[in-house]
UniProtKB/TrEMBL annotation:
Signal peptide: none annotated. Keywords: Membrane, Transmembrane, Transmembrane helix. Residues 377-499 form the Integral membrane bound transporter domain. Residues 691-712 are annotated as: Disordered. It holds the Pfam family FUSC_2. This is FUSC family protein. Its main location: membrane. It is a multi-pass membrane protein. It comes from the Bacteria. The chain crosses the membrane at residues 31-62, 74-91, 97-116, 149-168, 371-390, 410-428, 435-452, 458-475, 487-507. It comes from Streptomyces kurssanovii. The keyword Transmembrane helix applies.
């Protein structure tokens, strides 16, 4: 993609307004907390302290909107406390330009590294630095600085108390995550009716898994319907795929296929009903026709073998979903322990330390941010415009570790500031509001920002800019120079951020083949773990008593993480003005489809793992152990080949699979799955060979075919 096109697309993405579900009650609560703090500070201490306390309450309310599974009061308290510390340190060094610049550069660098911990930590750190740049201009002494910092912390306390006293949709985020996972599986079931090999994005399941991590105290208070449902939903997905796939299930057409379509439609209906119940905390209402379809007596007459087993297991799992969604009969506690903030500190420090390497995007972001903020502050101070902090404030708020967000947010920030400052100044010059009226309008602007902040950064920037103008006006700021100063400095800050990324980038495109290799390696380990279970069915069960071991579960989660990392990297690369010397866009898409198919096939094999209970298990399949060992070695070598821009060689895997026959394994699912898996790996090799412009090394004699036990 050319630079011109990249700039155009990122600008449009920054100005885009999305339709999102608004949360007016949460916005009212945040604005009410801000109003309480500002009103009390104005009455007791005057405008200067009110401005400081307002920023603390404002930022703490924003923290409660972040996409984090931490309790909202904890986020508010953490935001207020860290902002108070940052501001106080800024106060102490503010009168010494060299010390303040050193602190600013160090604080920004550490804030950039916090992206290694997660986006919530990175966003909160950037916001603290931005607000610190404004508030350090207010006090006149160390004692006053301590008072201002204390009031900022009080703002966080007030917002936390309001969240506790006036909760809105308790466990709402966790409910939405679980409901989205169930709804995604319902949609998957319906798509399988028309496309038996349809793909499934595991992101909703991974999102729900993250939401299931709670502290011991939260685990005791969690609603009953959030116990166990996710674990059952995890086991439904491979059963749906197994039931629909013609290679291991019923023929593509005929009475058996019609029955499968009926079952899939009923499954989608039941999962949708469970999703609605979980999302709203209501009773599960399953339409009678869906229940009747799942229990039609002719299932046994139309289906046999693996399809029949899958149909029976699907019915049992759907009954379990309905039962757990009703808060009764949960077979498992279904929660992962989430450590407290103090216990997370060592892990956070390790994550930040691990990013201290030259090729780290997070390190590059930290270096860029600290350099740009320092340069912006110096330029803003040197220019005869006043309000010099607006340039570094803009830069630190728009900069992100990836190209598209940095450039898109820069454009959005400038456009929003232009509108917000312009409208605010027009209102001031027309109405000439006093101190209390200005504070009231600032609170209204904050409410608007809370309400629309998830619809787009450009819209939110309008309210943020107006909020800052009115709030600083509360402290007696001169209105006359508001528009030209702040618009020009905002433009300067955004321009510095964009220029810094161009000069010191962290492109995702050149690393795509490494992401692809990671995904291949994760899928290979997942496949080998499943094959090991066929070789030794007595290896164990998961916590729910279903077939599978801890190794299989861990490998599955690793493969999902690798797939999501690949998808995110590919999305970022599509907007970057650079090209990969290893993977073109078409090659990347073809390779991604091949690996997605490989993962789907392994999931099908896993769905038919031999059950083992009470010492009476299925017979081991020695051939599976041989294939697992060969596959591990071949995948490791194949991943290395992808990293080095070579075509993977699957010859050893072909040799093992070609030797398979009914004497070695009579399991049709395992034989058919192995053929399908090998076909997907061959598709990956073909994609890499096409990029090189040659046929690559041949992994087997003769033309490749997908025919065989798993013929489509």
């Amino acid at each position: 993609m050319s630079w011109l096109r990249a700039l155009k697309e990122t600008a449009l993405s920054g100005l885009k307004v999305e339709r999102k579900r608004l949360e007016p009650l949460i916005a009212v609560r945040g604005a009410a907390g801000l109003a309480l703090v500002v009103g009390a500070a104005l009455t007791l201490f005057g405008p200067a302290v009110a401005v400081s306390s307002a920023f603390g309450a404002f930022q703490s309310a924003i923290a409660t909107f972040q996409r984090s599974w931490r309790p909202r009061p904890v986020l508010a308290l953490l935001s207020g406390a860290t902002l108070a510390v940052s501001t106080f340190l800024g106060y102490l060094t503010g009168t010494h330009i060299a010390l303040f610049m050193a602190l600013l550069a160090l604080w920004t660098f550490l804030g950039g590294l916090l992206w290694a911990v997660g986006p919530t930590a990175g966003i909160m750190a950037a916001s603290n630095i931005a607000i610190m740049l404004v508030t350090v201009t207010l006090p006149t002494s160390v004692a006053a600085a301590a008072g201002h910092a204390a009031m900022i912390a009080v703002g966080g306390v007030v917002q936390a108390l309001l969240v506790v006293l006036f909760p809105v949709r308790r466990w709402g985020a966790q409910r939405d995550a679980l409901a989205d996972a169930l709804a995604a599986e319902a949609d998957y079931a319906r798509r399988l009716r028309e496309d038996p090999t349809a793909s499934f994005d595991p992101a909703p399941l991974m999102h729900a898994r993250s939401a299931a991590a709670v502290t011991p105290r939260q685990a005791r208070r969690r609603p009953a319907e959030l116990h166990g449902t996710r674990g059952v939903a995890e086991r439904i997905r491979p059963v749906l795929a197994s039931l629909a796939d013609p290679a291991v299930g019923v023929p593509a057409e005929g009475p058996a296929r019609d029955r499968v379509r009926e079952l899939l439609h009923a499954a989608g209906t039941v999962l949708d009903a469970a999703a609605r119940a979980v999302r709203h905390g209501e009773a599960v209402l399953v339409p009678p026709e869906a229940t009747a379809a799942l229990r039609t007596p002719d299932t046994g007459a139309l289906l046999s073998g693996p399809p029949r087993r899958a149909a029976l297991r699907l019915t049992a799992l759907l009954d379990e979903v309905v039962g757990t969604a009703r808060g009764a009969g949960a077979a498992e506690s279904d929660h992962r322990t989430r450590h407290g903030l103090v216990r997370l500190v060592p892990g956070a420090l390790r994550a930040m330390r691990d990013e201290l390497r030259p090729d780290s995007p997070v390190l590059r972001h930290a270096v860029r941010s600290s350099a740009v903020v320092a340069a912006g502050y110096l330029l803003g101070t040197a220019l005869p415009l006043g309000h010099g902090y607006w340039a570094p404030l803009t830069a630190v708020m728009v900069m992100r570790p990836d190209f598209s967000q940095t450039y898109g947010r820069s454009v959005a920030r400038f456009a929003g500031t232009l509108v917000g400052v312009g409208v605010a100044t027009a209102v001031v010059q027309t109405a000439r509001p006093g101190t209390y009226v200005s504070a009231g309008i600032a609170v209204l602007c904050a409410f608007g920002m809370y309400l629309v902040m998830r619809t787009g950064y450009a819209v939110a920037s309008v309210f943020i800019s107006a909020y800052v103008v009115f709030l600083l006006g509360t402290g007696g700021e001169d209105w006359a120079q508001t528009v030209p100063q702040r618009v020009l400095l905002t433009f300067l800050g955004g321009l510095l951020a964009m220029l810094a990324y161009a000069l010191y980038p962290a492109w995702e495109t050149p690393r795509l083949h490494h992401r692809l290799a990671d995904w291949l390696l994760a899928h290979g380990r997942y496949a080998a773990a499943v094959l090991d279970r066929y070789a030794d069915p007595a290896d164990g069960q998961d916590t729910a008593g279903s077939p599978g071991s801890a190794d299989v579960r861990g490998a599955l989660l690793d493969s999902r993480d690798a797939r999501i990392a690949w998808r995110d990297a590919l999305t970022k690369a599509k907007h970057e003005p650079v090209r990969s010397r290893v993977l073109s866009r078409s090659t990347a898409e073809d390779a991604g489809r091949a690996l997605a198919q490989a993962g789907r096939v392994v999931m099908l094999i896993e769905a038919h793992l031999p059950e083992y209970a009470g010492g009476q298990g299925a017979a081991p399949v020695p051939a599976a152990a041989a294939l697992a060992e060969v596959l591990r070695n071949a995948v490791e070598e194949g991943a290395e080949a992808v990293r080095e821009n070579r075509v993977p060689d699957w010859g050893p895997v072909h040799e093992v699979v070609d030797r398979w026959g009914t004497k070695e394994t009579s399991d049709a699912v395992l034989r058919g799955g192995a053929v399908q898996l090998l076909a997907a790996l061959d598709d990956l090799a073909d994609a890499m060979a096409a990029r090189r412009g040659d046929d690559g090394p041949r992994t087997h004699d003769g033309p490749r075919t997908h025919e065989g036990p798993a013929a489509r």
